[in-house]
From TrEMBL:
Protein name per UniProt: F-box/FBD/LRR-repeat protein
Superkingdom of the source species: Eukaryota
Pfam families from the UniProt entry: FBD (PF08387), LRR_2 (PF07723)
PANTHER family xrefs: EMB|CAB62440.1-RELATED (PTHR31900:SF34), F-BOX/RNI SUPERFAMILY PROTEIN-RELATED (PTHR31900)
InterPro entries per UniProt: FBD (IPR006566), FBL13/AtMIF1-like (IPR050232), LRR_dom_sf (IPR032675), LRR_PRU1-like (IPR013101)
Location of the FBD domain: 229-308
Amino acid sequence: MFSFNNTLETLKLKHSVLLHLPDRVFMKSLRTLHLDCVDFKDNQSIRFLISGCPNLENLVIDRGYPNVVHTFVIVAPSLKTLSIKDYGGLEDGGYVINAPSLKYLKIEEFSHCGGCCLIENVPMLVEANIKNVSYIVNETILGSLKSAKRLVLDLSPLEITYPTGTIFYQLVNLEMYTRKAEWWNLLALMLDNSPKLQVLKLIGESEPLDLNKDVVVGGKWNQPKNVPECLLSHLKIFVWTGYDWEREEEKEVATYILKNASQLKNANFFTKPIIQSKELNKLEETSEMLKELDGVVRASSSCHLVFVG
């Protein structure tokens, strides 16, 4: 067993390191570990490193490719925050997370890989930020987050399955990006299954769309069959940045929430700025749109509606 300086609290390894640990390590004082472009010779090296830090609280993993080890297993009983960014290269592996004390989880940039992310044990999770993980082959990732009080999601329901029966009983704050295919249908599911939701923030593109990029347009907003409990009893704040009034489904979503959120106190819409001379003729149309939205009969008589262009 390798024993390091027992006073070491933070360790950062970076720049294409290949780590080989033929024996166990022991760093009882280590609280923070950063692995930036670090690969391991084998799975045993990962296990020896993580288990050798019994008081580890913060783990940051930033991986490039190729990776020798496909499946990165994280078993850390004391871990409180975990951030994973992976730029690809996982053909058939991924991550397994077992962290019963975990409170904050961030997973992003699973690009061009067919790996999975199995979240086995995170009962204390408070906040999770899940972005750009369309290549994760895992139907339970959302279900694994059901203890969270705050969620940030940048997902498409066409790529991530919503597990049947998943209820987010603790969720009070939800942020969702509106740039993925049929995001509005995932929103409907989240509203329907988050009975205590108090704050909803939708985040669109802050700048006009680049028409040369592949952009999913159109679609149909499938509103919940019954008005969700969160709209009837709990939702108080609704914020939409990058609101695109020209897209029909966005108008439908905005109208639905205003018509049904009976406890809503504040609804703030930040529309896309008109910054090009050729778009100046849209000013009048924008004004009409704002009047139309302002004219929606709101379920909450005390709702304060704000538009920022």
